[in-house]
Amino acid sequence: MSLPEHFFWGGATAANQCEGGYREGGRGIANIDLLPVGEDRFAIASGKMKRLQFDDGHFYPAQDAVDFYHHYKEDIALFAEMGFTVFRMSVSWTRIFPNGDEDQPNEEGLSFYEKVFRECRRYGIEPLVTISHFDCPIGLVQKYGGWKNRRMISFYEKLAVTLFTRFRELVTYWITFNEINMIHHLPFCAAGICFEEGENESQVIADAAHYELVASALATKRGHEINPQNKIGCMLAAGPYYPESCRPEDYWQAVCDDRDGYSLIDVQVRGNYPSYLLKKYEREGIHIPFAEGDQELLREYTVDFVSFSYYNSRVSSADSSKKDTTEGNVFPTLRNPYLKESEWGWPIDPLGLRITLNVLYDRYQKPLFIVENGFGANDIPDENGYIQDDYRIDYLRNHIREMIKAVEEDGVELWGYTSWGCIDLISNGTGEIQKRYGFIYVDRDNKGEGSLKRSKKKSFYWYQRVIASNGKELD
Ligand code: BG6
């Protein structure tokens, strides 16, 4: 088995899930800071419950997270020890523009990221930067309603241009929005949207999605102007839908469910709204808020690569009364009797990754980048404090094997693989840290207690061998 020599190996994080330091360096508050652990979390993330400030009754885990803000040197040194050649991370918008609509950026925020990128470069690690990973300044939510408002495009453009300019020599791989399709399921998390009583929610989401698409195209344009070497990608929460049976109606349902995922990146990759989405909007009476110049921007500034997260596949049935569901990334799915599930109920399906790679490559013929894949588990240290996470190694090994087949046997063009949560971090779905993904254990619990000490798990040494052998040594 062999992967291209320059194949990128590494790990992925997001600012709000690992950085902490939420009040330091002049940082402002973001939507994502306001997601507590517990019952309200999903209601807030989906825009059904409004929470625009902290309260005493809840624990907000993003405030301190795993304190990458103060530990970044130690953490990047550990990534380098594993042999990373790429590190995917995101910037916190409110470190750079604390309210979102300032004229000038906050120098302290920029200089923090400059130090992080320089530290990566010192070890030969390529930063892959997500401009917005579920991140929207609360100032913009309060004043403008978040991405409901077209004015967000110019605030985002300013953020992107600031980053492209300041980090011209340090960063060339960029992702405009994390999992853009999640706007359909987590509107507050993905776009700072809180629904008002009586609002047409589908229209609000279609508006916000359109503004994000235009902002993404504009960032692609500006990014290429500022540095023609920049590679700018879109990002999809991926995972195929399998029909529950070979009944044509079930297959058709799977096609439709898959399209719900692809519809926005179809625009980012192909430059126009797919006909099936236009027809759906027409049926539902939804209007796309096109303004002069939008169509040209979308058409001319398509992305350079397609990145995606893959955790699990899903099952579709035409019979909506079926209730045997299990969890999956963000929203549940019908249970697949052929697959085992993680402790959190997410189906484990390595072949689904090969399928995803092939389907995306067939559909777009663009280079792909796997920027999230991993296994959330409750790691229990043994009597010596060591984590023997063979379950994580198994999951990753089986997925990487399928990834290599997609490249070698199917000819998919794949730039790299970054495993999610390479260091333990806060779960986006539940807010727990005990849903751990890392090769590096962080001593912290769900209540925010612990020394934050980092230690290497068994998977750390395993991944080190995988990288050193460019995927040849997987056992
Ligand atoms: C992706 C997100 O949806 O899944 C990450 O981009 C998230 O932010 C990851 O952490 C895993 O999900 P969870 O809920 O286990 O944290």
Write up what this structure looks like.
This protein is an alpha/beta fold and about 475 residues long. Helices cover about 40% and strands about 15% of the residues. It has 15 helices and 14 strands. The protein has helices at about 15-20, 40-45, 70-80, 95, 105-120, 140-145, 150-165, 185-190, 200-225, 250-270, 275-285, 295-300, 350-365, 390-410, 460-470; strands at about 10, 85-90, 125-130, 175, 230-240, 240-245, 305-310, 315, 325, 335, 370, 415-420, 440, 455. Strand 9 (about 325) and strand 10 (about 335) form a beta hairpin. Helix 3 (about 70-80) runs parallel beside helix 5. It is globular, with a radius of gyration of 21 Å. The relative contact order is 0.14. The mean pLDDT is about 95. 6-O-phosphono-beta-D-glucopyranose binds near residues 178, 309, 372 and 429.
Write the layout of secondary structure elements.
Blueprint: E1 8-12, H1 15-18, H2 40-45, H3 68-82, E2 86-90, H4 93-96, H5 107-122, E3 126-132, H6 138-144, H7 152-166, E4 173-177, H8 187-191, H9 201-226, E5 231-238, E6 241-243, H10 248-270, H11 275-284, H12 294-300, E7 305-310, E8 314-316, E9 325-326, E10 333-334, H13 350-364, E11 368-372, H14 390-408, E12 414-420, E13 440-442, E14 454-456, H15 458-468
Helix pairs in contact: 3-5, 7-9, 9-12, 13-14
The structure holds 6-O-phosphono-beta-D-glucopyranose.
